[in-house]
Structures are given as structure tokens and as C-alpha cells.
């Protein structure tokens, strides 16, 4: 009997020692895991949960699992005074009214400019409080992210050995007499600098670029490469897919280095000096007529210093083999 009492006392001492050391029990582990699963369900947050959320988690653990207030608050990292203190009603109505009026009068003003304006008007609200109300009202201005371009490697600018191996294209812009702006899409063959086409219109999106290239390929052999810059029309996925379907390599020059597309840049200068700056146009149709007439003269008559004083068509006749011209 005495040994039985000693064993009971020893077990009681071990139990008391375990409880005094703060070692969690199995039941506590289960409760903690269940509460963690509840708090994490559907909420994969990187930021610290708000106080109201942690207060709700503590209430849930007390009501659902019957744990103490101390244990629940410690689990969700919430002060017990904060847990007991009732949430204060928002008194930001005046700030909301001021911000709403400023947003209606000045739609492009951001939070910082509104804060400076309110300070100048004698409002002494804390800037962090204004920022909080500003975000709660969803007044944040949309900032279009800058599209990141892949790394562009510089490639040597060489003259192709035959026509229709490498084309170059670029955009230009000008205005008619009424002030309306128009654009031109210029395409040349790098072999003999022949101008393949000049497309003129108010807008020339990426789909229009594809139509121009397909129209040129109806009477010319399709190129192996096309050199261009990094304009939004020329980096679209639609153009890349079209080039992949036709086994055409798109060569994008490095941003801010137009000299890497020197052939088309030289053509643009000639076209601007002899056409765009030489005439005052009243309509797009007039621009198209003058550009088409100048294009024929440029390809057939105008001598080029880089082509031994010949025009592009004359240079092609003298240098391209007859068999290649017949196949083309």
C-alpha cells in the first residue's frame, strides 16, 4: 500500500513538473493545429493579419474548442487588452468627403498631391491616416507597367548576297494641312535598297503590318529576315506567330540605337526631305499619290552612291544572275 502511494505521488510529481515546464499536452497540440488550419484556410497572406481578423480567430477558438482567453490570444499573437477593447467606429467621414471632392475635381491627382493640398488648406490629418482612407476608397491611380523587352543583341549590318534575303521596315509620321497626323510604314530590301512599299494611313497597328508584308510577298519572294525596331506594333505576339509560320526571323535592334537599322533610316531621311518636307498635303489620298510617284522614280531613276551610281532596279539587273531573276 505504501509503495502504491509512492508510485502515485511520483506520477503526480512528473505530471506537475511537465505542466510547470510549459510543455504542451497532446490535446493542446490538436487544438493548436486545428486553429492554425482554420486561420490559414483560404487566406494565404504574406502580410500580417489585421487585428480584427486575429480577434475573430481568438473568438472562434474560444467558442469552438473551449480554450482559455489567454491561450487563444497568445496563439494568434494578440494582446488581451486589444482583444477585450471594442472596435471604434470610423470617424473618417470628413476625410472621405474631402478626398472624394478632390478626386472629382482633379482625377489625375494622387495621394501625395492630395495630402499636400489638404495641409495647405489647414487640415492637420496625419499623412498615414489620409493614405489609409485613400486606399480604402480605392482612389489609387492606375499606372501602366512598362513592358520589359528581352535582351537585344547587336548584329552586324551586312549587305545580303541576294535580293529578298533581308528586309528592313520602320515607321514615320507627319501631318496634313488640317493638323491631322498620319503615319507611314516603309519597307525596303537591304540588298539594293529598293523600296518595296510605303503604306500610309492614320493608324497602322500590328495587324496592318502583317497585311502589308503578306501583300508584298505575293509578288516578291518571302524574306528570311526582317530587321525592325521595338515599337509596340513590332513586338506583338501576333506578328511573332506570323513570322514563325512563314519561317521568317525577326531581328529587333537594341532600344535607342537606330544606327543598327541604318538602311531604312537612310531611306527615311530621303523620303522626308524629298516628299514629306517638300509638299503641303491636304488629304491622305494626296499623300498616297505623291508617295507612289516618288517611289517609282526612286527605284528606277534616282542614282545611289552606295550602288555605284545606279538606281536600285538597275543595280539588281547588273548584279543578280538571270536564273535567279527568272525564279523570283
Number of helices: 14
Strand order of the largest sheet: 3-2-1-4-5
State the CATH architecture of the largest domain.
Answer: 2-Layer Sandwich
How large is the radius of gyration? 37 Å
* Helix-strand topology string: HHHHHHHHEEEHEHEHHHH
Oligomeric description of these chains: single chain
Could you characterize the architecture of this molecule?
Helix content is 49%, strand content 11%. It is of the alpha/beta class and 328 residues long. It has 3 domains: 27-39 and 46-88, no CATH class; 93-136, no CATH class; 166-327, Nucleotidyltransferase, domain 5 (2-Layer Sandwich), CATH 3.30.420.10. α2 (26-40) packs across α3 (51-65) and α3 crosses α4 (69-75). The longest helix is centred in the N-terminal third of the chain and has 19 residues, at 2-20.
Descriptive terms for the model:
328 residues, alpha/beta, Nucleotidyltransferase, domain 5, 3 domains, five-stranded mixed sheet, 14 helices
Topology:
Layout: H1 2-20, H2 26-40, H3 51-65, H4 69-75, H5 80-84, H6 93-105, H7 111-120, H8 127-136, E1 166-175, E2 181-189, E3 194-201, H9 206-217, E4 225-228, H10 237-245, E5 249-252, H11 262-276, H12 284-300, H13 312-319, H14 322-327
Parallel strand pairs: 1-4, 4-5
Antiparallel strand pairs: 1-2, 2-3
Helix pairs in contact: 2-3, 3-4
